[in-house]
Amino acid sequence: MLTAVLALPLVGLFFFRIYENQLVHQTEAELIAQSVALSAAIRRDFESNLPADAVLGAPAPATPSSAPAEPFRPILPSLDLTRDTLLGRRPDAKPASQPAGTAFRAAGERLSPLLLETQRSTLAGFRLLDPQGVVIAGRDEIGLSLAHVEEVGQALQGHFAATLRQRVSSHAPPPLYSLSRGTSIRIFTATPIILRDRVAGVLYASRTPSNVFRHLYEERGKVVLAGLSVAALTLLIGLAFHRTITRPVQELIARTTAIGHGDRSAMRPLTNHGTAEFARLSQSFLDMADSLNNRSDFIATFAAHVSHELKSPLTSIEGAAELLRDDGSGDGLAMSEEMRRHFLGNIIADTHRLTAITNRLRELARAESTPTGGTTSLSPAIADLQRDFPALAIRAGGDLDSAIRISAENLRIILAHLADNALRHGATELDIVAISQAERLHITLRDNGSGVSPNNRARIFDSFFTTRRDSGGTGMGLSIVRSMLNAHGGAIALLDDEPGTAFALAFQRAPEAETHV
Prior knowledge:
Layout: H1 2-11, H2 17-49, E1 94-95, H3 102-122, E2 125-129, E3 135-138, E4 144-145, H4 150-156, E5 161-166, E6 185-195, E7 198-207, H5 212-218, H6 220-260, H7 276-326, H8 337-368, H9 378-388, E8 393-398, H10 408-424, E9 429-437, E10 440-447, H11 477-487, E11 491-495, E12 502-508
Parallel strand pairs: 8-9
Antiparallel strand pairs: 1-4, 2-3, 2-7, 5-6, 6-7, 9-10, 10-12, 11-12
Helix pairs in contact: 1-6, 2-3, 6-7, 7-8, 8-11, 9-10, 10-11
């Protein structure tokens, strides 16, 4: 891209047709101005020196009657390199079918120094022709006819004409000049000289337009300065790109490669942030990598907990089963009926625990991927809670009818887990208070159970943490509650409260116009 930026000025040299066209317009305008000025001088000479009976040419075109009475009738340059046809080189002059009259030859001798002096200053070539197209003044071709030349023929009829013709030079242009079309063309203008409302002669002028590269050479100081400016600007753009894009991209690639190989020290902010957008992008990558690592740690820890929780009842079942199998084999004492029933009871209790663990795991998985659609309010959920937990005296107050963004089934699961947790810790009462604040509904649940000891407060939301393992607790109820609340954009926290236990829940409020589910 930087190479393309640097090459743009060079590529632009192949598209300077507009500039060449401007040079053509400039050259045509100069020829028009010189021809009109010389024609005025020549007409005055003709008026003073041509006899009244001198044979003139075609009548001058009549001025359109619709034209306003305007004293100025400018001749404007009209040649266009892209539109006009480039004619062949100018035809050679031919012998005149009728020689010029004596008066016109004498006028040519008088006016020839004027034309030559003008040519030395303007570098334009001039030919003065009589009314029949015979050259009577100029550097060459005196006495020959140019009446057969297209633009001269138009001028002999009283019309100004300008053409682009191919230029054939005796010297080949420099190789660089071959890129310019302007070196191979010559501009010709034919201006009629009107005397007594008839064509008294034609001033035929020509010149090669200035060359683009010659102009560039003449302005070489400015061209070099512009080139250095472009190079410096390209260098600055390259440095800016390197600092804002290339270096941050390379560092981010190195970081992602290191993170992919397990290097957690690579999860830190980039040294070079680049643009604000790239800084946000890189931080998003690092946040995603950190989230994935945390998820990986959670899965590894969770798998270790699951294997540990399943191992204890399975070991117990295996041991009891082996004892029952070996009973009566004759190798030892026979097991009493009471011991047999004891071991069978252990097996049944452990299978119940396994069943409870698998059910909780299924509920946790459901909480992690639970659908988050639907809205409901606390009132119907509390009514279901009072029906399902008759052993608890459930009292509710506050804003119980505000719509919150959670389905009625998911809200029932959350409240049921919390009520079951309170009941299992010896609670007989459960108070629920709801308060609306801005876009959140804050709920406080407070029971009169045994409470949470200070040593266990930091671990109650951890999976498989329980103080009731002997009585069938799995330690997954509060984990399920937290996962389900997180999925719905809510939150849960343990409050400092004695006696009993208190939880603070937060739900996202829904517009009242939404349908309750």
